[in-house]
Design goal:
By secondary structure, the protein is of the alpha/beta class. One of its GO terms (cellular component) is cytoplasm.
């Protein structure tokens, strides 16, 4: 049985302030939790409903297991319908972003993406297409937000997320910088080469003025109909698909 202080502590991790303070984030659902077993992430505790215990694989001895009732899961879950399992996972220390690690590949760069669902979907999409790294500006939504984590469906375990001051980072960068802009060249006519950073902007404002200055190859997804814009996660999927196609 969970104590009031335990419930209060877990619920506090729904907020960025306390995730940062305790270096822990929440993952819900056994399918998503399993994805972290084979990753570099360290699992702190798994809370489970006894009725679904048989779904747990054999776990390392250093992972804490805690049986809880459905009513307790309801209290600590960020979901409307809890999925029987909730894990607390350590947030890794900030990874150092080495420019050499970005050579000979394409990397998504997100400038001011704010919606947790969009962020999670982009991470999941990158994983599907085999992209290993994503660079986020400092004003992007936090990737450990419960809604973001849930939207990744476990892909967060496989995609390295880096945070960077984009103007400063791009100043040091030596590989081509492609940016999604309405007046850019069609992505289907672009000479992509073998490497590059592909920048996608904020849902409402697009790419910031400071970052636009660093783009040397503006590109766009050609519009056929009358819609004003594309959702940023949809755009990311189209870019990823085209980049994989031209590389192969």
């Amino acid at each position: 049985m969970l104590s009031k202080s335990q419930i209060s502590f877990i619920k506090s991790l729904h907020q960025k302030k306390y995730r940062k303070e305790h270096s822990l984030f929440i993952v819900e659902g056994i399918k998503s939790i399993k994805e972290f077993f084979q990753s570099s992430y360290q699992i702190h505790t798994i809370f489970y409903n006894s009725e679904q215990y048989n779904l747990l694989p054999k776990l390392p001895a250093n992972i804490n297991l805690f049986e809880v009732k459905n009513a307790e899961l309801d209290k600590i879950s960020a979901l409307q319908t809890p999925q029987g399992f909730l894990a607390l996972i350590h947030i890794p220390k900030n990874r150092e972003l080495a420019l050499t690690a970005l050579k000979n590949q394409f990397t998504l760069v997100l400038d001011g993406v704010q919606d947790p669902g969009n962020m999670g979907t982009i991470i999941r999409t990158a994983d599907w297409f085999g992209f290993k790294n994503i660079i986020c500006s400092t004003d992007c939504v936090e990737v450990f937000n419960p809604k973001t984590v849930q939207a990744t469906m476990g892909s967060l375990a496989r995609v390295n997320i880096y945070e960077a001051d984009l103007p400063a980072f791009l100043e040091k960068n030596t590989i081509p910088v492609f940016g999604a802009l309405l007046d850019g060249e069609s992505i289907y006519k672009t000479q992509w080469g073998t490497e590059g950073l592909v920048i996608l902007g904020n849902e409402g404002k697009g790419i910031s003025a400071e970052v636009i200055k660093k783009i040397n190859k503006p590109v766009t997804i050609p519009r056929i109909g009358e819609a004003e814009s594309l959702n940023v996660a949809v755009s990311a999927a189209i870019f990823c698909a085209e980049l994989v196609r031209v590389r192969n």
